[in-house]
């Protein structure tokens, strides 16, 4: 039965570095699931630097949906998945392949999108819990800042916050990272 470790914090808090240390401590085959999409040169450079930091001994998967199906190939591996990051997954499912005016969206459509994201994440959690894989999930804490002044930002904050709560509830360990310091929550 797979173990889930949840790591959250603000931007540049050190959460990804902390999560990588957790992965190394588990001493298993390492699988990195990158949910970010490289749209520009700055993001491509970030991805390149992350790959160098991790080293070569990682299986890398670049995806943000159907992760439980993609990871099926590795379910018998004595491995650990580093999902970095959950909030990118939420963002991508919210906006990719959709032509939505978020200022005029109906609450029914917002609810359908959130249910799609929740379904994706719950299937991944269920898959991990029923496999030999462990998983470390990195996510941005979205509830400690200002209320976004635009609709898409508010919908993202609300959905991201509820998805963070889902993973935190389901995980075996949880950590909050602030200024490179960890606080064990669970």
Descriptive notes:
- The protein has about 190 residues and is α/β, with parallel strands linked by helices.
- Helices cover about 45% and strands about 20% of the residues.
- Strands 3-2-4-5-1-6-7 form a seven-stranded mixed beta sheet, with helices on both faces.
- Helix 4 crosses helix 5 (about 105-130) and helix 5 packs parallel to helix 6 (about 150-170).
- The model has no long low-confidence stretch (mean pLDDT about 95).
Supply the number of helical segments: 6
Strand order of the largest sheet: 3-2-4-5-1-6-7
Beta content: 15-25%
- Mean pLDDT across the residues is 94
- The stretches of 5 or more residues where confidence is low (pLDDT under 50) are none
User: Percent helix among the residues?
Assistant: 40-55%
Radius of gyration based on Cα positions:
16 Å
Number of strands: 7
Please describe the topology of this protein.
Layout: E1 4-9, H1 15-26, E2 29-34, H2 41-54, E3 58-62, H3 67-71, E4 79-84, H4 86-95, H5 107-129, E5 134-140, H6 151-170, E6 173-178, E7 181-184
Parallel strand pairs: 1-5, 1-6, 2-3, 2-4, 4-5
Antiparallel strand pairs: 6-7
Helix pairs in contact: 4-5, 4-6, 5-6
Summarize the structure.
The protein has 186 residues and is α/β, with parallel strands linked by helices. Helix content is 45%, strand content 22%. Strands 3-2-4-5-1-6-7 form a 7-stranded mixed sheet, sandwiched between helices.
């Amino acid at each position: 039965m797979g173990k889930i470790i949840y790591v959250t914090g603000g931007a540049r808090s050190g959460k990804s570095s902390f999560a990588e240390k957790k992965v190394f401590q588990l001493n298993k085959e390492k699988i990195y699931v990158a949910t970010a999409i490289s749209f520009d040169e700055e993001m491509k450079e970030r991805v390149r630097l992350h790959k160098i930091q991790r080293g070569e001994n990682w299986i890398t998967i670049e995806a943000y949906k159907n992760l439980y199906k993609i990871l099926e190939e590795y379910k018998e591996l004595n491995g650990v998945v580093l999902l970095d990051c959950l909030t990118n997954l939420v963002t991508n499912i919210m906006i990719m392949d959709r032509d939505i005016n978020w200022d005029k969206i109906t609450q029914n459509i917002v609810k359908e999108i959130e249910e799609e994201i929740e379904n994706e994440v719950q299937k991944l959690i269920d898959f991990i819990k029923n496999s030999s894989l462990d998983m470390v999930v990195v996510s941005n804490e979205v509830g400690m800042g200002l209320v976004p002044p635009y609709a898409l930002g508010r919908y993202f904050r609300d959905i991201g916050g509820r998805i963070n709560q889902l993973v935190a509830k389901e995980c075996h360990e949880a950590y909050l990272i602030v200024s490179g310091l960890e606080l064990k929550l669970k």
